[in-house]
Design a protein that fits this description.
The chain is α/β, with parallel strands linked by helices and about 120 residues long. The chain has helices at about 20-30, 50-65, 80-85, 90-95, 100-105; strands spanning about 1-5, 5-15, 40, 45-50, 70-75, 95, 115. The protein has one domain (about 1-115): Transcription Regulator spoIIAA, CATH 3.30.750. It is about 35% helix and about 30% strand. Helix 1 packs parallel to helix 2. The radius of gyration is 13 Å and the shape is globular.
């Protein structure tokens, strides 16, 4: 995770599935300071997202909302998980942007979100 102003950035690569979704997303919630206003999950390198991952994202959004924090996702249009987000209507609950620059336009170009990996 990386803090930029009042935003927490984290990138998740690989697969998010039943084997790791709960622990991965619980770690994101637990590692986010209370004074953070926005959590950005960069899922650009996420190759697979199953129903446990979708459910985990819904839960994470709710946990953060209770703490008055917003969640936004970065998922490029050609990503293999983009259709899953549309099919489950997750993109109606959590804002999904095409690129990190869309989410945080003032982000310095040398800043990347650190990667958290699921099983390959």
């Amino acid at each position: 995770m990386r803090r930029v102003g009042d935003t927490q950035l984290v990138a998740i690569s690989g697969e998010v599935d039943l084997s790791n979704a709960r622990s991965l997303l619980d770690t994101v919630a637990a590692s986010t300071p209370d004074d953070t206003s926005l959590v950005v999950l960069d899922l650009s390198a996420t190759t697979y997202l199953d129903s446990a991952g979708i459910a985990g994202l819904f839960r994470l959004a709710e946990r953060l909302r209770i703490r008055r924090q917003d969640l936004r996702l970065v998922v490029p249009p050609g990503s293999p998980i983009r259709p899953v987000l549309r099919l489950t209507h997750l993109d109606h609950v959590i804002q999904v942007d095409d690129a990190l620059a869309d989410t945080l336009p003032d982000l310095p170009p040398d800043v990347e979100a650190p990667r958290a990996s699921g099983p390959a």
